[in-house]
Design goal:
This is Serine hydrolase. One of its GO terms (molecular function) is hydrolase activity. It catalyses: a beta-lactam + H2O = a substituted beta-amino acid. The chain is α+β, with helices and mostly antiparallel strands. The chain has two domains: 154 residues, 3-Layer(aba) Sandwich (Beta-lactamase), CATH 3.40.710; 116 residues, DD-peptidase/beta-lactamase superfamily (Beta-lactamase), CATH 3.40.710.10. It contains ten helices and eleven strands. The strands form three sheets. A six-stranded mixed sheet has the order 1-3-2-11-10-9, with helices on both faces. A hairpin with a 2-residue loop joins strand 9 and strand 10. Helix 2 packs antiparallel against helix 10, helix 3 crosses helix 5 and helix 3 packs across helix 6.
């Protein structure tokens, strides 16, 4: 009898733990918007996740929003947070002049990678290049200064259970083989951007500096191309062969809204504008903008595609 009683108690405790950890929407589902977005992912050749939240209306949509996806370059958002956390602690100086070394090079078309060994650059500019142009050499330099372990500790301490740096981080090798540089869920990456917007990352001053960097994005041909250029947007993209993703927070007339679109296992691995993942990013952005801002009269000019 006593054994049965204890088993029941254990079952209740275990069930409550599962319930407590189960992801729930912190908003009311927008059924009309959900229907429009479901059409986009219905025949997508791969796995797609979408998280949308209008902060003022407290409405949104969650489609595969708690599924883990590769971040690709979106991991540079957590890296920049880790970097600013070190700066706030006094372990790094935002205005320090650093010396570039050839050993830092990550082969590609990055701006920092074109530097000569021994050239000088301010840490503030390295941090800007990591976000604004998604410079990989700059990003890996920033990660080395912030450390993947410390970044992941900050994420865990702040309630982000699935967002992690994997590459060049002890104990994350098995995850790197699956997800690459980093991993996240649409919900977590979007909510991370919301925390920055609200001044809740590190402190209001650090959050503001991070946000300013995130509204100066060179890669504006996908989600940002579907939003009027007069509207401020903070964003970060990520792309590898089988994954195209983007997180963006729009300072819209009706109030701020955040969107994160992620993909994995894409059949289309092309690197053209017509890649199915890139099309999904643009289509989601367009639908969400028009849904929340139906009275805002704006149409992208004819022929604008050639500039992207």
């Amino acid at each position: 009898m006593r054994k049965t009683f204890y088993l029941k108690i254990l079952f209740i405790l275990f069930s409550s733990q599962l319930f407590a950890q189960a992801p729930t929407n912190s908003f009311k589902t927008d059924k009309a918007l959900e229907k429009k977005l479901q059409v986009l992912v219905k025949d997508f050749q791969g796995v797609a996740g979408i998280y949308v939240k209008h902060l003022k209306k407290n409405t949104g949509v969650a489609i595969q929003a708690d599924t883990v996806f590769p971040t690709a370059s979106m991991i540079k958002v957590p890296i920049t947070i880790g970097l600013f956390n070190k700066i706030e602690k006094g372990e790094l100086d935002y205005h320090a002049i650093l010396t570039y070394k050839d050993s830092l090079l990550y082969a590609g078309e990055d701006i920092l990678g074109s530097f000569k060994d021994g050239e000088k650059i301010a840490l503030s500019k390295v941090a800007m290049l990591m976000i604004t142009t998604s410079d990989n050499t700059a990003s890996l330099w920033c990660q080395a200064m912030a450390t993947g372990t410390a970044i992941n500790e900050w994420l865990a301490a702040n309630g982000f259970e699935n967002t992690r740096v994997n590459s060049r981080t002890a104990g994350r090798e098995a995850y790197r083989k699956i997800y690459g540089w980093g991993q996240t869920t649409p919900r977590e990456m979007a909510e991370l951007l919301v925390k920055i917007r609200k001044g809740e990352v590190i402190n209001p001053a650090a959050s503001e500096r991070i946000y300013r960097n995130m509204v100066r994005i060179y890669w504006d041909g996908e989600a940002l191309s579907q939003i009027p250029p007069t509207i401020q947007v903070a964003s970060k993209q990520g792309a590898v062969n089988q994954s195209r993703s983007e997180v963006f927070l729009v300072n819209a007339p009706s109030g701020d809204y955040v969107v994160c679109v992620t993909t994995k296992n894409q059949k289309d691995e092309s690197w053209t504008r017509n890649n199915e993942g890139y099309q999904l990013l643009r289509n989601v952005s367009k639908i969400v903008w028009e849904h929340y801002e139906p009275k805002f009269q704006w149409t992208a000019p004819a022929g604008i595609e050639k500039w992207y």
